[in-house]
Design a protein that fits this description.
Elements (H helix, E strand, L loop, with lengths): L2 H10 L4 H15 L43
Length: 74
């Protein structure tokens, strides 16, 4: 194993399962070639029932009354 691979392995030690799952998902999406994606783990199946269409957010209020969203953008 190369020095870089050892550094990466050491940096992953101690991370939570959620963090490791996120990193694995990013590697599978953006780093690995498309032919290896057929082997990828499909986490979308687990959360499939929880997905909501963007239109279902219509009419919901996400910013409190009186809050200036641009206040921090000086």
């Amino acid at each position: 194993m190369s020095t870089l691979q050892n550094q990466i392995t050491q940096s992953l030690e101690g991370l939570s399962d959620d963090s490791l799952r996120f990193i694995l998902d990013m590697i599978q999406r953006f780093v690995l070639p498309s032919e290896s994606r057929s082997v990828s783990i499909n986490y979308g199946v687990v959360t499939q029932g929880k997905k909501r269409r963007l239109g279902s957010m219509k009419g919901q209020k996400f910013i409190a009354d009186g809050h200036d969203i641009d206040e921090c953008n000086d």
